[in-house]
Amino acid sequence: MIRVTTTGDDPKAFAKELERGMSAAVAAAGLRVAQDAAGELAEQSMALLTKDPTGALARSFEARLVSSSGLVFAAEAGSRLPYARIQDEGGIIRPRRRKYLAIPIPGRVPRGMGPREYPRPLSFVATKRGEGLLIEKQGRGGALLRGLRAIYALKRSVRIPGVRYVEAAYNELEPTIAQTFVEYLGEHFERAAKAARGKGGE
Questions:
Q1: What angle (nearest 5°) sits at the alpha carbon of residue 28, between those of residues 25 and 31?
Q2: Which of the pair, 122 or 145, is modelled with greater confidence?
Q3: pLDDT in tens, 21-61
Q4: Are 133 and 153 in contact (CB under 8 A)?
Q5: pLDDT the model gives residue 143
Q6: Residue-level pLDDT at 4
Q7: d(Cα 152, Cα 115) in Å, to the nearest integer?
Q8: Is pLDDT larger for residue 200 or for residue 79?
Q9: Cα separation of 190 and 72, whole Å?
Q10: Which of 11, 102, 117, 154 is the most exposed place for a label (fewest CB within 10 A)?
Q11: pLDDT at 60
């Protein structure tokens, strides 16, 4: 047999104390889950975006309490970066203000450096597909093509695959959600019991 009993001289006082802070305890637990989710999103994005990640996306994840009313609350974790969703879900990227996307040739440009920041002059060469290359002339003399090096590929659009870091983060987080609420509500239960015992001794 399992028996559960209340303690304190006044069970009504305990019930009142338990009700008084319940919504705050639930909201605190929800915010903690969102904070844990932000951490998992950062970890999974770094792990799955293996092509020389800068960490900017991982650092951008934040948790916030969206709303709280009684025992009903909403909390979330996410990023404000415009490319966060497409890195997760995949899709097609197109230029917004220019004709082409400038895609660095691997190993020839420091990460994050665009054509405007490149330290030497670049020339445009059209390709058969109606796109192009930005090239740098190397050395002097010799055949024309042997003296040129492609630095950027110019594309009208690029399709990138999604890495599904949100799904991976949720799968890691989901088993811990219930335990987080148990811990926070358990602490609230203990505080309410202690407060009721104190009032009972007055």
A1: 150
A2: 122
A3: 888 888 899 999 999 999 999 999 999 987 656 788 999 99
A4: yes
A5: 44
A6: 43
A7: 8
A8: 79
A9: 22
A10: 117
A11: 95
Could you tell me the two tokens for 78? 């996410």
Closest Cα to residue 192, out of 16, 69, 30?
A: 16
- Euclidean distance between the first and the last CA atom of the chain, given in angstroms as a whole number: 35
Using CA atoms of 82, 83, 86, 87 in order, give the dihedral in degrees to the nearest 10. -150
Beta pairing class for 90-93 and 158-161: antiparallel
Gyration radius of the chain over CA positions: 29
Query: Which residue in 17, 79, 96 sits closest to 45, CA to CA?
Result: 79
Cβ distance 192 to 21 under 8 Å? yes
Average pLDDT over residues 2-11: 51
Handedness of CA 77, 158, 122, 151 (dihedral sign): positive
Name the nearest CA neighbour of 181 among 18, 34, 49: 34
- CB distance 91 to 162 below 8 Å: yes
What are φ and ψ of residue 26, in 5° steps?
-65, -45
| Residue 148's pLDDT band (cuts 50, 70, 90) | confident
Output the six-digit token pair for 71.
């025992």
Report the predicted TM-score, pTM, of the whole model to 2 decimal places: 0.72
